[in-house]
Amino acid sequence: MRRVLCLSGPNLQLLGTREPEVYGRTTLAEIHDELRAVAESRGATVDCRQSNHEGTLLDWIADARGQADAILLNAGAFTHTSIALRDAIKGVGLPCIEVHLSNPEAREAFRRRSRIAPVCVAKVAGFGAASYRVALTAVLDWLDARDESR
Amino acid sequence: MRRVLCLSGPNLQLLGTREPEVYGRTTLAEIHDELRAVAESRGATVDCRQSNHEGTLLDWIADARGQADAILLNAGAFTHTSIALRDAIKGVGLPCIEVHLSNPEAREAFRRRSRIAPVCVAKVAGFGAASYRVALTAVLDWLDARDESR
Amino acid sequence: MRRVLCLSGPNLQLLGTREPEVYGRTTLAEIHDELRAVAESRGATVDCRQSNHEGTLLDWIADARGQADAILLNAGAFTHTSIALRDAIKGVGLPCIEVHLSNPEAREAFRRRSRIAPVCVAKVAGFGAASYRVALTAVLDWLDARDESR
Amino acid sequence: MRRVLCLSGPNLQLLGTREPEVYGRTTLAEIHDELRAVAESRGATVDCRQSNHEGTLLDWIADARGQADAILLNAGAFTHTSIALRDAIKGVGLPCIEVHLSNPEAREAFRRRSRIAPVCVAKVAGFGAASYRVALTAVLDWLDARDESR
Amino acid sequence: MRRVLCLSGPNLQLLGTREPEVYGRTTLAEIHDELRAVAESRGATVDCRQSNHEGTLLDWIADARGQADAILLNAGAFTHTSIALRDAIKGVGLPCIEVHLSNPEAREAFRRRSRIAPVCVAKVAGFGAASYRVALTAVLDWLDARDESR
Amino acid sequence: MRRVLCLSGPNLQLLGTREPEVYGRTTLAEIHDELRAVAESRGATVDCRQSNHEGTLLDWIADARGQADAILLNAGAFTHTSIALRDAIKGVGLPCIEVHLSNPEAREAFRRRSRIAPVCVAKVAGFGAASYRVALTAVLDWLDARDESR
Amino acid sequence: MRRVLCLSGPNLQLLGTREPEVYGRTTLAEIHDELRAVAESRGATVDCRQSNHEGTLLDWIADARGQADAILLNAGAFTHTSIALRDAIKGVGLPCIEVHLSNPEAREAFRRRSRIAPVCVAKVAGFGAASYRVALTAVLDWLDARDESR
Amino acid sequence: MRRVLCLSGPNLQLLGTREPEVYGRTTLAEIHDELRAVAESRGATVDCRQSNHEGTLLDWIADARGQADAILLNAGAFTHTSIALRDAIKGVGLPCIEVHLSNPEAREAFRRRSRIAPVCVAKVAGFGAASYRVALTAVLDWLDARDESR
Amino acid sequence: MRRVLCLSGPNLQLLGTREPEVYGRTTLAEIHDELRAVAESRGATVDCRQSNHEGTLLDWIADARGQADAILLNAGAFTHTSIALRDAIKGVGLPCIEVHLSNPEAREAFRRRSRIAPVCVAKVAGFGAASYRVALTAVLDWLDARDESR
Amino acid sequence: MRRVLCLSGPNLQLLGTREPEVYGRTTLAEIHDELRAVAESRGATVDCRQSNHEGTLLDWIADARGQADAILLNAGAFTHTSIALRDAIKGVGLPCIEVHLSNPEAREAFRRRSRIAPVCVAKVAGFGAASYRVALTAVLDWLDARDESR
Amino acid sequence: MRRVLCLSGPNLQLLGTREPEVYGRTTLAEIHDELRAVAESRGATVDCRQSNHEGTLLDWIADARGQADAILLNAGAFTHTSIALRDAIKGVGLPCIEVHLSNPEAREAFRRRSRIAPVCVAKVAGFGAASYRVALTAVLDWLDARDESR
Amino acid sequence: MRRVLCLSGPNLQLLGTREPEVYGRTTLAEIHDELRAVAESRGATVDCRQSNHEGTLLDWIADARGQADAILLNAGAFTHTSIALRDAIKGVGLPCIEVHLSNPEAREAFRRRSRIAPVCVAKVAGFGAASYRVALTAVLDWLDARDESR
Predict the structure, then answer these.
(1) What average pLDDT does chain A have?
(2) Phi-psi region of B126 (alpha: psi -120 to 50; beta: other; left: phi over 0)
(3) Contact E11 I56 (CB under 8 A)
(4) Facing residues of H5 across strands?
(5) Quick check: is B23 catalytic?
(6) What does the pLDDT average to over F48-58?
(7) What is the pTM of this model?
């Protein structure tokens, strides 16, 4: 049974209340519920967490080895500044998918650079709350394809 | 019935033969076949084209008004240099999804900047040939969600 | 009899339909009609064309030698990226006037740099559709003044 | 009754002991005492906290909605690097005043850029420990003026 | 009756004597005479002034409110450095046309950036002394067109 | 008796009439009246002046030696370009407080750099017209604290 | 029998007429004749083409696989801007020699950067029309040496 | 008896398991054991800790005053981004040695800049796990030499 | 009889009182006296002026044509920002010598760039108040040498 | 009889032993032998030298005036840093051909900039040891063509 | 018996006399004596040399092949500019340790970049004269460890 | 008796023969003769040398301690690249005057940066061959003034 770890970073606990005209009215809890339903329908599990602490995200990624087959990571603003997250992803050796609600490159210039993109296998951005579901479905397909080609 | 226009830019006709260790062995024709099957299963149509000519891509985008509900665009190397494509997307007023086989930001530095990202609603990158299918499914969902919320 | 070549580049065929709140409702065909009327009233001719293909614009400029006395060029987005257009203008040896509907320097930062300005004798920008007419009148005066001073 | 949240970031717990020739001999506890006295004299309250953890500051800002009317934020070194703090301030929707003991722009070059200034309504810097009091008084006046003009 | 204010900045009093091979032999007084004749033929007036003092130009622009319908501004070298002129133009709320004798972008690199272009409605450059006349005619047409469309 | 010199630079004479939605409706004369009242209540005097001329501001600063105990300087757009003002402040040897109505760092990118901040002891920005009063009160306190600690 | 593909890009059809003091009086047709003679004397063939269209050059390069042993490419102004040409060269997997009539690095600064150099095995520049012949001879030797060392 | 504080930052808990071909197979626990043995043989003590939390590292450094004679700091990825660590080191007033397993300057460009190097007295990098021991030995010698020269 | 114009820019009226440890105790009046004595001994005259107003300096330079044989210019802080001074020097067509008391390139980074150096024939910097005398003597010799070589 | 000077710079004495997988197994002595044979067959002479000392290369170039008709220069790593070599080439007034074994632009970024290219008439790079022979043949042809056209 | 080559570059012959407050009072001869004693105690030899000539250093490094097991290199100011040294180290194929007395990254900005670090196996900096001894001891250990692991 | 060391760097032995339209027809030997005559008339001596070798210049500067009172240094192209010369000047502790025949800042962009200016007390540039004499006279005066003020 496939296990996916879904991590969300700083300020994402505000989803559904913060700037709804930009981010929509869906809460993070509702997203997590939908992800669990999708996983179940695929015979998989998904473990969903959120933290405003970079160190906590680093701990979770490091501890995922042997506990998960892939990571969905919406690192929020840490996306643009954290080399430590980059190193953690590279170190744990699991395929990681970068996820964003909006399309960061269509926003301010300082959101153009992603520190983690170079160590991620794929990226999904701009579908609003649906980005998480799109990414989960795609990564499960990706894992199937990888294993078949081995 | 939803109509999607799927455009691929320079050198993508080489898919499946060019550097297979990077881009895989699936040809563009096979991708187009899969997209048409997916569209049919969703009660939609997809019109798939490729050109090495920037001017031809500009013509196709301009002519899409009233002929398509959304555009999937893998602009290849033009992604990083063409302001004209950006203007065409903005001018035609259709939702456009940026698509890439690989994760360009994980490659050379000059592939970090996307000229078209700021006028696209979403991006899918890094799932190999599957990026097209992921993007098609996601944009059809996105169109449903948009219409429901109107 | 003076002959002027008036070239318009990518996406300008959309004039009058694309973002009318920015570019106005006049179509390129209407502009061409007005230019021909102005030219006739001055005892001159003007040959008006548009293409989305950089290569086609290059062909037209190269073929203008001996066929035109001056060029009006609204290169659209190619203004900011095309060194080939710059070389073509320099190579053909005809006076070229850079024309824009809007004032590009008052828009996004990447529209600040004009690749062709350094090889043009003059620039007219920001008068909307009237920019073409202002430029045509000015270049005809400029040709008269140049010949008188010889 | 107005409620102000006053947050101090990394290393500010060292105030009064760290480099007193630069930062003076007043401790953060003494500053907090003075702020509470000033608030009381204005019929307001101020809640003063310090943390070396970016995540903790993010939590406090997010939780301030409905609990405070304005935020005084001395983000210390995070001022120059934290996009997450910027997002948190923007997300919570409360007026935020940037506060500094010294005048960072008069110090090293890397202290010239403030990541949070673009989302703050005002800034007070360079009055030493008094910067906090100046900012508290000014923001209370600012809130009065805002409400009068509504 | 339309009133236009025509301002020229530093070193333009040298026109006709300074580097005539670049700027021609027409003096600024002769240009001013021609502008007044053109204005009269259009039933308008033009008030022409020159100063080497940035502060004086700022005073004149600020005082133009209610005294002029549009401003022609050849800011000379201040074009590239003066944020104060930019603020003055924005503050006075009148349409301003940027004018240059030569084509600055075809000269040294530091003349590529115009500080005032982003707050001007249009630009005319490169027609020598005739640039002033071209701009005056164009702005009078522009004012007519604007009023008609209201 | 403490004497403070309050200088305002280019375009600030337009206050209350220029873009009131950004700068408010208070005029500079009203600000000066308030400053004089505050000073009187503190047993101090304040000398308030405005000029659009950088040279005049330089003269005033140089002449302040022995005539003032501190300077409040709202240099307007000169803030971002004038090294001469920086040198004048450094040369006169008086404490200088940088004052702004708005928060420049929250506006265009070219307003991020302050040429004078490195030679000022403090900064107050973003409280609208109240910024002047906040700065005057703070600098009087700062002078008291400085003298007590000597 | 060795087969070489010799491609020339934008504006090179003007050779012999454009700026002869820079590029000489030899036409591209004369160069092509000389190349064919040289190839024949070496028991090889050379296929010479020119286009102002980037897309046409891309088509030709992609179609060269299995049809040519090496490519001589004078990309003209596209040298400095076209990532698509770079990708095409890399994709087709044939040795490519960069050719220039003049020495671009001895000209304007924007001609210093070659987008295609990093994927070419060699470069010949600055010998005027003779650069083509020098490159053809050298690449035939290079192919011989490569095959001998296998 | 000399006391040394040895701090390791983000992801270093993965040592010995993460990318062993780059970092070797020695675990951080084994390094800590070796450091304690070396310290004992020198009549010193070493207190070894690791955290993924920047705030925790800041707390530990601030608390080291009076508790340690020197600090060995392998800040991992925080090396390149954390101004807060720099301020903490400067504030605590203890000699700090920058330690790295690999040679960061021989890796990606973004690892060239060390935020903490300017406030450290020395650096040891590139000896693999042995870097810690080399640094501990050297700093004990350094402390001896410093005290002798006093 | 040779006539030299010696101009000093912003803040130089403070000489001898401003930061004497950097600029020495000689006043500008004393420098002017020495220059007049040196000129007289050489059978020449020198006209010495100072202004804090860029516009006044521009007026003086423009009016120097036919009134002076050479210009000594210590533009102070305007050295680094004024393109208008550069244009004035170029326009008046007189040899200009850049003069500085200190060695600006040995100070802050923003004093590295001289806007006027590219249009000056020579530079003298770093000899303190003596820089003026060194420059005056050198330019008189230079004028003699130039006339002899004609 | 034509005389060519062939100079090789730092580390090229290691050819054939240093990184043979990059530079091949031919030694510099063998290259020199081949060059002398080629020159003889053309009725010319070639003088071949190598030095690790920039000063020695400068001496040789300066002394070449009247002793050689052209210079082949493989400046090795000095290519990217030595302005002195550039000045020497410009000063001696002989045509200089830049030669490289590999294609430097296809290697590290710091090898992209050639300090000497702007003063060389031509460049040959990337043919391995054969680059020297290609350059010698081409420059002899170039000298013939130049003399014929005189 | 291990043989180490210890090279010191420009100005290091001044050690002990140049700026002793920065570099200490130990001379290079004393350092060399200490190194020889340390080497002897380890059953090794060290050959110590110094030169101000980049070319001489290049000669010594090239000649070290087969004559030394490792190189200690304090390249002084050449560290920041010499690509030739980098190439020499890479070419000779011996392990090289970068050595500095001070910590260059804690000094001026132009000392941040080391041209040779990317080709060195390790770096020791900031221990004053002791840096040499630390490096020698460490590299002998490193050689032992390398050989044991083979 | 004052002793001055006058050093000239790369390519200056070509003076009088290299590009005489830029550098004049005076040879370096003639300049040296004039300097010796000037020195004698002032009761001083001057030791004049030239080398194309950076290392030789470094040796001469280091050996000047106790042998000279000041150094005149025309470092030629090394001016822009040599940090080693900068360190040598700083290390020897003698006042150094930067000398240039032309005005380097009025030439190519890469001659704008002087590596040695920040450690020189003064600069003389642009008087042609007379620059040496002007600098010698000025430095002798400067030494007198320095000693008088002690």
Answers:
(1) 92
(2) left
(3) no
(4) H47, H71
(5) yes
(6) 96
(7) 0.88
* Residue G22's pLDDT band (cuts 50, 70, 90): low
Mean pLDDT of H16-29: 81
Confidence of residue C54 (pLDDT cuts 50, 70, 90): very high
Per the CB < 8 Å rule, is D91 touching A56? no
Q: Which of E119, E127, E142 sits opposite C127 (nearest CB)?
A: E142
Q: Please tell me which chains touch A, using 3 or more CB pairs under 8 Å as the contact test.
A: B, D, H
State the catalytic residue, choosing from H23, H32, H53, H132: H23
Task: Set out the domains of chain I in order of their start, with CATH numbers.
Answer: 2-144 (3.40.50.9100)
Model ipTM over 0.85: yes
- Chain E with chain F: Cβ pairs closer than 8 A: 51
Chain D nearest CA to A9, separation (Å): 9
Kindly list the residues of chain B whose beta carbon comes within 8 Å of any beta carbon in chain A: 97, 103, 105-106, 112-114, 117-128, 130-131, 134, 137-138, 141-142, 145
Task: For residue K63, give the nearest of K8, K10, K7 by alpha carbon.
Answer: K7
State whether I76 and F65 contact (CB < 8 Å).
Answer: no
Q: How many CB atoms lie within 10 A of CB I16?
A: 16
Please state whether beta strands K2-8 and J96-100 pair in parallel, antiparallel, or not at all (unpaired).
Answer: unpaired
Report whether pLDDT(B106) > 90.
no
pLDDT tens digits along K79-138: 999 999 999 999 999 999 999 998 898 888 888 899 999 999 899 998 888 899 999 999
B interface test, pick of G87, G115, G116 with most B CB neighbours within 10 Å: G87
Token representation of residue A121:
């296998």
For residue L65, what is the enclosing H or E element?
Answer: none
**Is residue B81 scored above 70 in pLDDT?**
yes
Q: Which residues of K touch H106 (CB under 8 A)?
A: 117-120
β E122-125/F2-8 pair status? unpaired
Q: How confident is the model at residue F10 (pLDDT cuts 50, 70, 90)?
A: very high
Q: Length of chain I, please?
A: 150
Q: Return the partners of chain E (3 or more C-beta pairs < 8 Å).
A: C, F, I
Which residues fall within 8 angstroms of residue C59, CB to CB, at 6 or more apart?
A: G52
Cross-chain Cβ contact L105/I124 below 8 Å: no
Q: A57: nearest CA in chain D?
A: D55
Average pLDDT score, chain K: 92
The two beta strands, L70-74 and L96-100, are: parallel
Going by C-alpha positions, the residue among B56, B77, B71 that lies closest to residue B119 is B71
| Mean pLDDT, residues B131-150 taken together | 89
CB J100, CB J114: distance < 8 Å: no
Q: How much of chain H exceeds pLDDT 90, in percent?
A: 73
* Other chains touching K, judged by 3 or more CB pairs under 8 Å: H, J, L
**Mutate: best of K52, K58, K114, K115, partner L, most L CBs <10 A:** K52
For residues I84 and G18, which has the higher predicted lDDT (pLDDT)? I84
Burial class (CB in 10 A: 0-12, 13-18, 19+), F45: middle
pLDDT digits (tens, 9 = 90+) for K33-74: 999 999 999 999 999 999 999 999 999 999 999 999 999 999
In chain K, which residues have their Cβ closer than 8 Å to the Cβ of L79?
A: none
Amino acid present at C149: S
